[in-house]
Hints:
The structure holds 2 protein chains of 2 kinds. Chain A is of the alpha+beta class. Chain A is 39% helix and 18% strand.
Amino acid sequence: MRRSNYSEQEIEELLRNLPSVTDTRPKADIYQNMQLAADKRRSPIRWIPIAACAAVIVLFSILAASFRMNLNSEHKVKVKDRNAVYQSNSEWDKKAGSTVKPENAGKKETEKETGSTPPAAEDKKQEEAPAPSDDKAETIEGKPGTEENKVLNAPLKSSLAFSKEGESHSYITISVPDPNLQYFIPLSFDTDKTDKQGQLEAVEEKMKSMNEESYGLSNYYPLNLGFSLGNEEGTVNVDFADKSSYNNSYESGLLNALEDTFRYLGYTKITFSTEGKPGIELSDTGAMQEAQLLPPKRSFLIYQSSPEHPKFIVPNVNSSAETIQDALKEMQNFEANNSAAASIPSDWKIETAAERDGVLVVTFSPGTLMAENENALLAIEAILLTAKDFGLKAVKFENAPLEKLGRYDLTKEIEVPSAPNVVE
Amino acid sequence: MDSVFHRIYEEHHKDLFQFLFYMVNNRQTAEDLVQEVYIRVYKSHHTFQGKSAEKTWLYSIARNTAIDHFRKQKSWKQRIMDNFDWGKHEIRDDHPLPEELVMEQEELSSIYHCLDSCTVDQKTVIILRYIQDLSIAETAGVLNWSESKVKTTQHRALKQLKKMMNVQKEKGGVRIEKI
């Protein structure tokens, strides 16, 4: 008799012979337990909005009572002025944005004559307009669409940072994996450090202080790593102080996260060291001395871990696009899964996408519909980030159905951003 | 909720439970997690577009549920420290054997325990491929990986299991072969 080693085929055979395991509980019990768990989960969450609603109702009733007293005393005057108010109100509707208070109609008229108030400023005034104007408007019949107009005119917030903005401050970007380690979300943070050394220190600090879970992402940082400027221009060194802190599954994501982090900081090469000695041994790649940070040529998707968390524009880790035209197709045709979805709306008809002197020219077909909403803004920003990943400098949209979307003038060339997904 | 639950129960419950059981090595936990899977399925069923197979989609949810469970159970750093460098570690025997395995041969008990020496991704691939009998393409669909990544991970996992089984054999001799 002798002892022999297992072969891989024998291991496979043993695995296939593992017994099947069954749930012995009756189906009805499982269903009941599931319903109880679902109900239990709902109840503690619900009382918070209920309490908030109750507080709002109490506050509203106090305010309403005091306004009603004021209104009663002013009622006769208001009825006399009703025709004049109607006139100014319909002008307000036509302009769909400026807030004209009946009491201040004369004052507003003066502003209108001077023509000095730009539309954006009017929008701002509308947002800042005190609530009492709405209550007073109760005395006016038929003031349609006030709240609706406010929503429509709410400014679309961009999530990208551009280098022009970085004179007295800059942005650091840290790539954070999602809970399944499938997507890497580059998050950018404002910092007052503008020099390279200061930025690296800011990255280390942010890795320690950031709360990834508040964005719906994996609690990944801090890692036991040290960053320092490399010997060559554009090079950063990453020192693995304690190799025992990583295992296979984290290592495979780690390289990806580090590459994205330093690429957005403007580096072109990472050198690795382990406790000061050159090189690192990673399970996926083996021994490594350095990694070149070339334009990675990826498409970008929209990632949202759950409706309570923000949407982010993320690189498609499985992108197989060789050209930017293929990347744009991937971004439109991506089948939603695991919290990631297509970034370009399916009803956008892109006729051509061509590179001219480092500029991506995207031409829309006539008849393309583009709503002025968050999804459209994210699509434009995803295209800008994709252009950056392909090493391009700017994007020009031709035949765009809108002239302006959020901060972007779609009739002009738009430079690619310096940092994606700016968060607080 | 009613009809979705009953249909999924009839078609997939056995597979989902078995997958979760081998992922977490504990019947009670698997029972809790499969319940969680149903709740997640109910919440997101309307978003399922039918472009991938329902089975693939359900396994994907089950896997995410198991990963969330691991994350809650321990901080990841502790898990990494526990898992790192298996050559120097003993195989843990802190999971009681399922009753289905008690009567089986010693080799099967050993391979069941050796599965814990794999990383979460390796273990997932092994369970999907050899216990749940999914194809490479189906496994890639569940994990949202490329097929080549599934093959590489499977290869590494088998290598790891082989190494651990041979270490076990050297120590206690689970295997004596007649010649």
